[in-house]
Design a protein that fits this description.
Layout lengths: L1 E3 L17 E8 L5 E2 L7 E2 L26 H13 L10 E4 H9 L8 E8 L2 E6 L3 H8 L3 H17 E2 L11 H6 L9 E10 L2 E8 L2 E2 L15 E8 L4 H21 L4 E7 L5 E8 L3 H5 L8 H18 L9 E5 L5 E6 L9 H4 L5
Parallel strand pairs: 5-7, 5-10, 12-13
Antiparallel strand pairs: 1-16, 2-3, 2-9, 4-8, 6-7, 6-15, 9-10, 11-12, 13-14, 15-16
The structure holds adenosine-3'-5'-diphosphate and magnesium ion (2 copies).
Length: 363
């Protein structure tokens, strides 16, 4: 069975409905990968006082990606949210997945050379989707040239340079944290995640997403929308010629937009770095204004194509991931020659949703 991927132009048309995303819950993961259902790892944005993205590369602490974590923390957060919520229905949806997976799906019709492999399973009428790390990709990352490893580090180091543990109103001139971060490295074990609910066309969606920082103190409650204060941090090559410009618009802006739009994060702050890893400028983009920056440019991406494609894809998924059984896993694959997305049942069934989730309790 397969899902044909047509040329982008064929996805033009009316926007499918996309509900305003709402935060259901949030959680923190500490240096030891222990999960806490609180905001201890939430960081606050504070403009960078340094430029060098390569400082601290030798002290970079990278999460051990050989330990598969599947969607465990997201599932635990859902169990926790259902126990706490007055309306446990809030933590139910047709599709449950990571935001990063939805970003990949949205970008599929206008992206080539970026294969992906997903696993899906249906349990109590909800489809859970996780990413199946591809062997090829893992190998490539390990052998990455040092320059690319440093660039990847630079993305995390920019987060260190732009964030503090306290809200901006509590920062004083000469605050020791400001001095400290000039030389701090990065630790990708530490994460702050939110769980949001929305709806694309007919399918309600719950997504887990890592949030880089907040602009202000987090307020929760019926009337407040904590999503509106979150900021996505990014780095990109300083734009010095038309090739840089076109690659920024074609690839970077599409991902910036898709990633933040999906979960209702309204601002993206991008540090533009030169080849020495120095941030030469910092620019803020409003997520909702990004599409306007590429509008009417021939051959570029369009939100409507991303959303209509994702909508059709999820509708199709509902018709093929049919067996309601967590021991049945479907493998969904997008790869060369980039004509279609294929689906097949995994030959060695291995549930990827945890038993404790199936049993309805956190351990
Ligand atoms: P950039 O933001 O500069 O790309 P995120 O921006 O999603 O919060 O991720 C933070 C950093 O993680 C990225 O910095 C990049 O360095 C690294 N990163 C994220 N996704 C990646 C991927 N698919 N491959 C390699 N590195 C990635
Ligand atoms: Mg992030
Ligand atoms: Mg980021």
């Amino acid at each position: 069975m397969s899902f044909p991927v047509r040329p982008p132009v064929s996805y033009k048309g009316e926007f499918p409905t996309y509900a305003q995303p709402a935060e259901i819950t949030s959680y923190s993961i500490d240096h030891n990968r222990q999960v806490w259902f609180d905001d201890r790892e939430l960081k606050y944005y504070y403009p960078p006082n340094g430029k060098d993205l390569y400082v601290g590369f030798d002290k970079f602490i990278k999460r051990d990606e050989s330990i598969p974590e599947h969607i465990d923390t997201l599932l635990d957060a859902l169990t926790n949210a259902r126990q706490k919520a007055s309306n446990p229905q809030l933590a139910q949806a047709d599709i449950v997945t990571w935001r990063g997976i939805m970003t990949k799906i949205m970008c599929t019709p206008t992206t080539r050379n970026e294969p992906w492999m997903l696993r899906a399973t249906r349990h109590k009428n909800t489809i859970y989707i996780e990413e199946q790390a591809m062997d090829e990709k893992k190998r490539n990352e390990a052998d990455l040239p040092i320059k690319e490893q440093m660039q990847c580090y630079g993305g995390y180091r920019f987060e260190t340079l732009c964030t503090l543990s306290k809200p901006p109103s509590k920062v004083q001139k000469g605050d020791p944290e400001l001095l400290q971060r000039l030389n701090d490295s990065a630790d990708t074990n530490i994460q702050y995640c939110v769980v949001v609910k929305t709806k694309l066309g007919k399918n309600s969606l719950i997504m887990g997403a890592e949030v880089d920082c907040s602009r202000d103190v987090k307020r929760v409650g019926e009337k407040s929308n904590p999503l509106q204060n979150y900021v996505e941090l990014k780095t990109s090559r300083l734009i010095e010629n038309s090739r840089h410009q076109s690659s920024f618009e074609r690839f970077k802006l599409k991902k910036f937009w898709a990633q933040s739009f999906l979960v209702g994060v309204p601002r993206v702050i991008c540090g533009f770095r030169d080849d020495q890893g120095l941030v030469q400028s910092v620019e803020e983009f409003k997520t909702m204004e990004i599409p306007r920056m590429v509008r009417n440019k021939p051959g570029l991406w369009e939100p409507v194509v991303c959303l209509r494609f994702a909508n059709e894809f999820l509708d199709w998924l509902q018709t093929v991931v049919v067996e309601d059984d967590p021991t049945v896993t479907y493998i969904i694959e997008w790869k060369a020659p980039w004509h279609e997305i294929t689906i097949r049942k995994e030959s060695i069934p291995q549930p990827f949703i945890t038993q404790r989730y199936i049993d309805g309790e956190t351990s």
